[in-house]
Amino acid sequence: MYAAAIWAVAYIWDRIVGDPRWLPHPVVMIGKGICAMERFVRRISRSERMLKPLGILLPLVIVGGAFGLTWLLLFALHHVHPWLAWAVEAVLIGTTIAVKGLQDAGMAVYRKLAGGDLAGAREEVGMIVGRDTNTLDEPEIVRATVETVAENIVDAVISPLFFALFGGAPLAMAYRAVNTLDSMVGYKNEKYINLGWASARLDDLANWIPARVTALLLTVHTWLFRTGDAKRAWQTALRDAEEHPSPNSGWPEAAVAGALHIRLGGYNVYKGARSFRAYMGEALEELAAKHIPATCRLLRGTSLLFAVLGLFALMLRGGWLL
């Protein structure tokens, strides 16, 4: 039952330790690899048109490299001592998820709002969103925070755990490489429309199942623990999720909006340019600071529910992650 033990330790590691600054984070190394690959691809490309086929190289090299290097590391450590490999695998899986980090970021915004420090809240939320935050009022700060926490329940928690369930640390790290690629080059702007298309498509594909599982888990947790309106959470997800520009982000955002009786989406400003996101949910309640800790409770509960289900699955399977 080593797989179940590794799974449990990885989840507990993230909930207690999170991502300490003293520990080198694999995502930093993945990011450096992406930057190096981008420079290489742009250097060998003779024209902008050539970037499109060459863009396939980024996920092939970065995702394949993340998987292969992690597997080789664990394979080598296993020959030193199996327990060493299991311990390192648990920590590696723990670094791919971010329940604690996501909650800490959300609650940092909440504490500023609760203390009446609107400028401080704008600064805190500006660290976790891409939109302009220097003129946001309290409801818009809350919306930005809730949307970010809700969306990242998939990217930062359920998806890496989902892939770890089937392929241990190598597959979880490969997913983290996919997600990091999308966040760095998966933009539909002039710079990355050709280079980053394959990375963006792969991220959409990787998150397709976890996003919908997340909406279901949010609904189940809301029903089990009375943390919101379960019926409205599921109905809102089914009705509004597909209106989001992302094929996946709308599912957790809509479910959270329905559960908390709030409306997400609306106008955002990015580098001075105004952009509209489809509305998620109905404004039965005005957005207020209290909705940030409520969203964090959904984050914690949903992650724990998936962790428990995964633990039971591994115990029943009696398999190995390594």
Profile the largest sheet: 2 strands, antiparallel
Q: What is the global morphology?
A: globular
Number of domains in the coordinates?
Answer: 1
Evaluate the radius of gyration.
20 Å
Tell me the helix content: over 70%
The end-to-end span amounts to 12 Å
Structural class: mainly alpha
Contiguous helical run count? 12
How are the strands ordered across the major sheet?
Answer: 1-2
Question: H/E series, N to C?
Answer: HHHHHHHHHHHEEH
In total, the number of strands is 2
Q: Approximately what portion of the residues adopt beta-strand conformation?
A: under 5%
Provide the descriptors you would attach to this structure in a database record.
single chain, 322 residues
What would your notes on this structure say?
This protein has 322 residues and is mainly alpha-helical. It has one domain. It contains 12 helices and 2 strands; from the N terminus they run αααααααααααββα. Strands 1-2 form a two-stranded antiparallel sheet. α2 crosses α8. The protein is globular and about 55 Å long. The model has no long low-confidence stretch (mean pLDDT 95).
Write the layout of secondary structure elements.
Blueprint lengths: L1 H15 L9 H19 L6 H4 L2 H24 L1 H15 L2 H16 L3 H9 L11 H48 L11 H29 L4 H11 L9 H11 L3 E7 L2 E8 L10 H27 L5
Antiparallel strand pairs: 1-2
Helix pairs in contact: 1-5, 1-12, 2-4, 2-8, 4-5, 4-8, 5-8, 6-7, 6-8, 6-12, 7-8, 8-9, 8-11, 8-12, 9-10, 9-11, 9-12, 10-11
